[in-house]
Amino acid sequence: IEHLQYMTTGKNISIFQIEFFVRLLNKMSLSVKNKDTVRAFWAKVSPKAADIGAGALCRMLVVYPQTKTYFSHWKDLNPGSAPVMMHGAVIMEGVADAVAKIDNLTDGLDQLSQLHAFTLRVDPANFKVLSHNLMVVMANQFPNDFSPEVHVAMDKFLALVALALSEKYR
Amino acid sequence: MVKWTDSERSTIQSIFSKIDKDVVGPAAISRCLIVYPWTQRYFGSFGNLYNAAAITSNPKVAAHGKVIVEALEKAVQNMDNIKAAYAELSVLHSEKLQVDPGNFKLLADCLTIVIAAQLGNDFTPDVQATFQKFMNVVVSSLEKQYY
Predict the structure, then answer these.
(1) Would you identify the CATH topology of the domain B6-146?
(2) Is residue B110 within 8 Å of B68, Cβ to Cβ?
(3) Residue of A63, A78, A129, A147 to mutate, testing the B interface (most B Cβ within 10 Å of its Cβ)
(4) For A140, which of B52, B55, B117 is closest by C-beta distance?
(5) What is the pLDDT of residues A39-75, one digit of tens each?
(6) What is the ipTM of this complex?
(7) Domain residue ranges of chain B, discontinuous segments joined by +
(8) Residue A23 and residue A77: Cα distance in Å, rounded?
(9) CB contacts < 8 A (A, B)
(10) Beta-carbon contacts of residue A151 (< 8 Å; ≥ 6 apart)
(11) What's the pTM?
C-alpha cells in the first residue's frame, strides 16, 4: 500500500481506489465463467431451494453437533422439524439474494453481514461447515449436474459469500 | 481409542460395499485436483493436469484414486486401530511425500461429496455423520507420525 501511495502521489488516482483494488485482488475472485456456472446451476436447482436449505441445515446439525449451540431456542432440532424446515428456506433466500448480487457480494450482503456480526454473532468458521453441507446436498440431489466444474465454482462462490457475511465482524 | 457402535460399524461396511470403488476413488482425487488446484503440487509426475477435462481423463490420476480407496478399505478392515494400520502410510506422507496434512481434509470433503452423489437417498444425515467420524479418524491417523 505504501509503495502504491508513493506511486500515486500527484496523480489522479485516490488511495481508496487503489486499496479497494488490492483487496479485490487478494480474494480468489469469481471469473466470468464461474459466475455463469453458478447462475446456470442455481436456475436449475432453485425450485428445490427450500429443500436444499433444510437438508443442508439438518445435516449440519447432525454431522457437526457443535453447531446446535446456535439453536438452543428451538424446541425441535430433529431432521424434518418445523424450525429446521423454515430456517432452511430462510437461508436459501439469502443464497438466492447472493446469486442475484454475485457481481458485488460485499455491498449486496451488507445488511446480512450486520445481522450476523452484531445480532447472531455466528463464529465465521461455521460458514464453511454450512457451505460444505450445502454442496453435499447439491451433489446428493443433483448428481448429474454437480460436476467438478460446478463444484469449484460453487465452492468459490460460497466462500466469497462467507467472506462478505464476515465483513462487519471487526 | 476410538469407540464404534455396532450401528456405526455396519454403516461403514455398508457404504464401502455399495460404492463403485473404481469410480469413487478416481472421481474424488480428480475433484480435489480441480476444486483445490494447489493440491496439484504433489502430482508433478502425473503429466497433463492443465484443466478439468485433462485431469478427469488422466490415467495416472485414475490409478491413484484406486490406490486411495484400497487404503481406505484397509482402514475399514482395521477400524479398531486405524492409527496402527496407518503408521507406515503416515510416515510415507510426512517424510517422503511431504504432504501438508491440511490437504487430507480437502480430499475427505471431496470423497464425501462423491459418495453423496453415488448413494443418493441412502446417504442420510446419520450415514453422513458416521462417514465423517470415520474420515476424521483416517485423517488423524495419517497426521499421527508428522513431527
Answers:
(1) Globin-like (1.10.490)
(2) no
(3) A63
(4) B117
(5) 999 999 999 999 999 999 999 999 999 999 999 899 9
(6) 0.90
(7) 6-146
(8) 39
(9) 52
(10) A135, A139, B31, B34, B35, B113
(11) 0.87
